[in-house]
């Protein structure tokens, strides 16, 4: 239980540290979005659900394997997921968001495959992230084209 609490504290701290400055966020919010992106106001809720399922998957993976390597892989995936907007806002390059979305998709697929024999619950909890990353990639690509 202590490990789960420590994992959650680290995840929350990383999310807080990777929040862009207000001026950087304003730049990002002023970017043009695709017309088909009618659910944009619900994206924070989707990302919160993804964050929760990723945290639960991390805890379950640790509980079932006690593998530091696996925990490091989850940590790397978490940093890319959380750092994506910070990286885009800091550099003002949507291209980095495309690469992050692609990395998250590949990383979540690899982790999910690794977790299936260890814990079906941990693998299943990665499914929202695996399903969201292609849509995130598409949104970033469309936004990049709209800014030209």
Could you walk me through the main structural features you see in this protein, from its secondary elements to its overall organization?
The chain is mainly α and 148 residues long. 80% of the residues lie in helices and 0% in strands. α3 runs antiparallel to α4, α4 packs antiparallel against α5 (94-115) and α5 (94-115) packs antiparallel against α7. The N and C termini lie far apart (50 Å). The relative contact order is 0.16.
Structure in a nutshell:
With 148 residues, the chain is mostly helical.
SSE blueprint and pairings:
Elements: H1 2-17, H2 22-29, H3 43-65, H4 68-91, H5 94-115, H6 120-125, H7 127-146
Helix pairs in contact: 1-3, 2-4, 3-4, 4-5, 5-7
Enumerate the spans where pLDDT stays under 50 for 5 or more consecutive residues: none
Q: What is the terminal-to-terminal distance?
A: 50 Å
| Tally of separate helices | 7
Broad structural category: mainly alpha
Strand residue percentage: under 5%
Q: What gyration radius follows from the Cα positions, in whole Å? A: 16 Å
- Order of helices and strands, N to C? HHHHHHH
Shape: globular
Record field, number of beta strands:
0
Major sheet description: none
| Percent helix range | over 70%
- Oligomeric description of these chains: single chain
Mean pLDDT: 91
């Amino acid at each position: 239980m202590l490990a789960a609490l420590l994992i959650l504290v680290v995840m929350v701290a990383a999310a807080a540290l990777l929040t862009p400055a207000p001026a950087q966020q304003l730049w990002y919010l002023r970017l043009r979005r695709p017309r088909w992106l009618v659910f944009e106001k619900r994206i924070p809720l989707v990302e919160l659900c993804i964050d929760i399922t990723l945290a639960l998957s991390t805890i379950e993976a640790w509980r079932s394997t006690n593998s530091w390597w696996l925990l490091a892989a989850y940590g790397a995936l978490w940093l890319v997921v959380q750092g994506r907007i910070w990286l885009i806002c800091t550099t003002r390059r949507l291209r980095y968001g495309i690469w992050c979305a692609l990395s998250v998709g590949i990383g979540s697929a690899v982790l999910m495959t690794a977790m299936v024999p260890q814990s079906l619950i941990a693998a299943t909890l990665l499914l929202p992230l695996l399903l969201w990353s292609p849509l995130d990639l598409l949104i970033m690509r469309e936004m990049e084209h709209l800014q030209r």
